[in-house]
Fold:
Amino acid sequence: MKLEQAIKQTIRDVADFPKPGILFKDITPIFYDQKLCSDIVDGFISKMDHKPDAIVGIESRGFLFGFLMANKLNIPFVLIRKSGKLPYKTTCYEYDLEYGSSKIEIHEDALQKDWNVLIHDDLLATGGTAEAAAQLVKKLGAKVAGFNFVVGLEFLNGRNKLINHSNNITCLVQY
Ligand code: AMP
Structure:
């Protein structure tokens, strides 16, 4: 079975989570299937033009495949977390949400200047979170080499927010 088909068959749609009107794409059943996980990691890696210097994963579902990819590529994995979770000195970035705002952080020594960094999350919706991650990467003096996601909700046009940072945007499955 093709990877895209296998992922789509495994992801579970949960209606009205976390609030009414949202159709939540639940990727947790993917992690019950070891072969599918390793096919996803290989699928991501096969779509990379160049090996990045590091992969940044966005809390929390971005840690899962982000770390597996980095480990397989023998490169560092760096965590971006919500404000107040990282223990060492951090650099932060605040961005607007539909209602209110959110703040994310990265350890200030996590990336070296001029590194080419790939940003990973489980899902691209409006692109606000991944765009904020790109701003953090740049604040540390590194470059955004691209973005990858398991799922892209293309009808929300999240790509438009990311294209200023890199047009190397991969979604393994799209809706
Ligand atoms: P956004 O900043 O709008 O691109 O939202 C992306 C973040 O919100 C990702 O970390 C996703 O895990 C989560 N997210 C947004 N919409 C959904 C959805 N429909 N299903 C699952 N996760 C979602």
